[in-house]
Amino acid sequence: MKATPTAIPDVLVIEPKVFGDARGFFFESFNGKAFDEAVGKHVEFVQDNHSRSAKGVLRGLHYQIQQPQGKLVRVVRGAVFDVAVDIRKSSPTFGRWVGVELTDENHKQLWVPAGFAHAFLVLSDTAEFLYKTTDYYAPAYERCIAWNDPTLNIVWPDMSPQLSAKDAAGVSLDKADLFP
To answer: What are the beta bridge partners of residue 5?
Structure first.
């Protein structure tokens, strides 16, 4: 496994070693020991999630203000533009974002630690998105920052996103509950 820091060093692009030939491919999608070495600490995942979305669907920017979740995300079918936003007020990268294209062909994964808001936009006709979380889903603590907040200035791929009612009601960063 190769782990590459992004412009926000706590967010890592994880690239597994893929073994392929004319028959197909094989790779370890997760290895606890290798992952812990990559992030520099032990990370315990407690929940796996799988979503399927149509082209243009944007999910996020989500986070849990209590029971914060670290997420290891990947795409098993299709392509997404995946975004992590640092919402830790004490962080030197507070308010900054990184975006990575994750596809079923590049096999890249993104490690989004607790303390970040997360979103993705589907680029392909459909996408199946898998993610491991470090804490359980807690709807009472879930929050949403507006995907198009002008202070964040996220440069999304050019398309009109389809949003859920919850995501359409996302608040601006200056009105959001944030991490210390």
So the answer is: 12
